[in-house]
Amino acid sequence: MKKTIIVLSILFSSFMLVSFVIEIKNGDINSWTKGGGRVMMSALPLALLFLQRTPFRVAHILGYYALLVCTFILGAIFHFYDTYKWWDVTLHVVGSMYVAWLGLAIYRYKVLRPSGIEISRWIIFLFVLGIAALGSAIWECIEFIGDMTVTSVMQRSGNKDTMTDLIAGLIGGVIIGILALFRNKPLEGKRI
């Protein structure tokens, strides 16, 4: 797993660094913060290497980079956000599903293993939904701060865009929550 994280982080960070340099050469004055953020986001999984044990598997890391490709490369660099109106909402649903999936991994690692007791599936549903909603709210805060400081295109239509994105995030959380509710019986611990 460590080799996978290192290779993906180096490849993606290098690509983001090259695109960052190209944007600066083309005279994009906002590229310092946008490009720097992209490079930092692509190197974020390297921070996992400092943890001795991590709840995330290779599939989680691959999912993370797939989201980065859809957001940074397809969405921003190849202008999918401008070309396809549904792209933003779809990424909010899928991104929220991803965050909820990470929430399940954390739940398994931090709650089930230490406690070893049976926990209601409805608690699991609420936990997953809460993690997805929190992720959506944090992302909307990032978009707002980005629009106030760097660019003005992240929240294109203001409140309508924000509320649409938050609803899309809740839908993604509900989808994974329902899957966790009915499909993942091993999420429940053992009776004592």
Automatic annotation (TrEMBL):
Residues annotated as transmembrane: 35-51, 63-81, 87-107, 119-146, 166-182
Organism field: Terribacillus aidingensis
Full protein name: Membrane-spanning protein
Record keywords, A-Z: Membrane, Transmembrane, Transmembrane helix
Signal peptide range: none
Lineage of the organism: Bacteria, Bacillati, Bacillota, Bacilli, Bacillales
Domain of life: Bacteria
Pfam families on file: DUF2238
UniProt keyword Transmembrane helix, yes or no: yes
